[in-house]
TrEMBL record:
<protein>
    <recommendedName>
        <fullName>Transposase IS200-like domain-containing protein</fullName>
    </recommendedName>
</protein>
<dbReference type="GO" id="GO:0004803">
    <property type="term" value="F:transposase activity"/>
</dbReference>
<feature type="domain" description="Transposase IS200-like">
    <location>
        <begin position="9"/>
        <end position="123"/>
    </location>
</feature>
<dbReference type="InterPro" id="IPR036515">
    <property type="entry name" value="Transposase_17_sf"/>
</dbReference>
<dbReference type="GO" id="GO:0006313">
    <property type="term" value="P:DNA transposition"/>
</dbReference>
<dbReference type="InterPro" id="IPR002686">
    <property type="entry name" value="Transposase_17"/>
</dbReference>
<dbReference type="GO" id="GO:0003677">
    <property type="term" value="F:DNA binding"/>
</dbReference>
Amino acid sequence: MARRPRRDTPGSWHHVMNRALARRPLFEDRADIRYFLSRLARRVRSGEIEVHSWCVLTTHFHLMIRSVTGDLSPSLGLVQNEYVRYFNRRHRRDGPLVRGRFTSRLVDSLTYRLRLLRYIDANPVLAGLAAWPWEYPFGSARQYVLGTSSPWLDRTWVEAEIRARGVRKGSFGDAYMDLTRTKSAEADAAFVSSWLKRGRHGSNDLDRLVASSPPGVLDWMLRKSALADGQVPGLPMCDLPSVRAELAEYRTKATSGVSIGRGRLADHALLAEVGLMRSMCGLTLAQVASISALPRTTTQRAAQACRELMQSDPEFARLISELGRRALDRCHGTDRWGA
């Protein structure tokens, strides 16, 4: 089967990663890491790429890269090939080291780019190698916080984001920690993983949706519900913990209900839960049913009732759009885009 061409144009942003075969070490010591980074620095100096975030672990690496010339594939392919030859020579081995050509995913959403920055930083925390990202020595989080970054780390975008938040002069390290501090590294990992698995369709919706008012959120949900067919409705716009947290706050006040057939009465909170998990979290009906502990047929009826109420009941439409708006705020923050 022919390889799919990478989506790479001058100025495009990418999440680049790869890992060793069979969970073996890709980097055995500091010398290995230093050599890998030196190959990366060469490509930066050549003007082909910019590196804005990076993290190297024992078995894999993550990079956030801006492709300057649109030559990401040959540039990173050279980095990887040079490193594999070095590793095999130094450790007296032969044969393949990595799973194949490096993986890259286009990052065409600013909101997702910030989420990805937190995810890359949090990798050592998720692996149990550090309590905080900036404590880990082999990643850009420590360099940003301590102000000791390598010449090839491009700080312009991150520093622009920090300045946009009105940071005081001389406190960039603290501001970076505030910018990238996450409520849940696991939720960030699950959110990024879902985008990686499902490709890129629909990604441009995220920035628009995060900037939308509740009526704008409702319009987007109505469009998504019209396309839903029981399969994956698209990329997630919000993580599940944020949706469930907002629903938990609302449930203490929820009293109204609606029939969903066969004598079942579903409260508006349950219908909103099903609708938000389908549209905001990008879950299938089977996944929603499992999470909500409902039969599949009941979940289908609840999803249908939710769609109908969004169109016919102004009070329910207001409820679900405000819950969706607050879940987006909780997930992505409102300091830049507003409610």
